[in-house]
Amino acid sequence: MTKFLRLIRLPNLIIIALTMCGVRYGLLETIWLETSQVLQAEGFSAIVEARLHMKGFDFFMLMASVLLIAAGGYIINDYFDVKADRINKKHLVVLDSSRNRRLALASFVLCGIIGILLGLWVALRVGNWKLVSIQLFSFITLWFYSSHLKKQMLSGNLLIALLAALVPFITGLYELLSKALPSLETINLLLPGAGTSVLSKGAALVLGFALFAFLSNLIREIIKDTEDIPGDLEAGCRTLPIVIGENPTRYVVLFFIFFTSGLLGFVQQYLFRSGMELLFWFLMLAIQLPLLVLAYLLWNAQQRSDYSKASFLSKLIIVCGVLSMFLFRYQ
């Protein structure tokens, strides 16, 4: 069981689940509650429209769909990565026999099929079966990434970052299409512009966190490639640090770190002016400061253990970004 949990990257799955809960209960539900309070203050009784429209059980099934596909992605990644992992992570290799590899391949297919079927069920409940194309795209992409793109320069990193960004995006999209649009029109009739404000604010928050997920995961993926140079060389990979060298790759990562920090600075400026000081200081202490420490670690990195520390810190930054979504309830 321990080996299986290691294979499916249980901590990473927990982060994915927290991300989806953060979008639903930290961001979107908070916006609906604020709108409900405004409608009550204006004396309107039809406040039932100002609520989450996706049923709790449907959301749970959506989360299960995403987690199963993600777990399958981790399994197939290890399936194709055995050669490199024997050098980079020899004490963590799980698929050390042909029997284990066959079971891993079957598990990948099973996770994918169940995940896609659950996604289709939720999509039908929402009223748009085409939404399952996101799960189908993710499943096929994870196979293609592990078998081909992982060994290529930057393209694999960008793809994984994109899939990470899809996690908050799919949560917001399913909620929006769960009969929320007619409710927004009703709210606009009661209070002109209020429904449109909910839509624009919700979309901005979801897309903003999707962008953070993209950039923070891209940073971590490139750092991991730098950490894994020995095994990747043996496996014939052509990752960014192998093609352009360790020092130029360091500068690429530093660029993305400072770019991310700059974008967060603009967000923090808005938060401070809006009186959201709790969130402002959380972002400053839990994300901005660690980003500076991360830049320092990378600038001074000399050996593989330094990149391991940087990789761990980058993961903590991602977790803090996820937790920040829940703070919206307390602003």
Strand content: under 5%
Q: What low-confidence regions span 5 or more consecutive residues with pLDDT below 50?
A: none
Structural class: mainly alpha
- Main sheet overview: none
- Average pLDDT, rounded to a whole number, is 89
- Radius of gyration, taken over Cα atoms and rounded to an integer in Å: 21 Å
End-to-end span in angstroms?
Answer: 41 Å
The strand count comes to: 0
Structure annotation, total helices: 14
Quickly count the domains: 1
- Into which percent range does the helicity of residues fall? over 70%
SSE order, one letter for each helix or strand: HHHHHHHHHHHHHH
Query: How would you sum up the global shape?
Result: globular
SSE blueprint and pairings:
Elements lengths: L1 H6 L2 H32 L14 H25 L1 H7 L9 H29 L6 H15 L7 H22 L3 H11 L3 H34 L1 H6 L5 H5 L1 H28 L3 H23 L4 H21 L7
Helix pairs in contact: 2-3, 2-7, 2-9, 2-14, 3-5, 3-6, 6-7, 7-9, 8-9, 9-12, 9-14, 12-13, 13-14
Task: Describe the overall structure.
The chain has helices spanning 2-7, 10-41, 56-80, 82-88, 98-126, 133-147, 155-176, 180-190, 194-227, 229-234, 240-244, 246-273, 277-299, 304-324. By secondary structure, the chain is an all-alpha fold. The chain has one domain (2-330). Helix 3 runs parallel beside helix 6, helix 6 runs antiparallel to helix 7 (155-176) and helix 7 (155-176) runs antiparallel to helix 9.
Could you give a short description of this structure?
The chain has one domain. It has helices spanning about 1-5, 10-40, 55-80, 80-90, 100-125, 135-145, 155-175, 180-190, 195-225, 230-235, 240-245, 245-275, 275-300, 305-325.
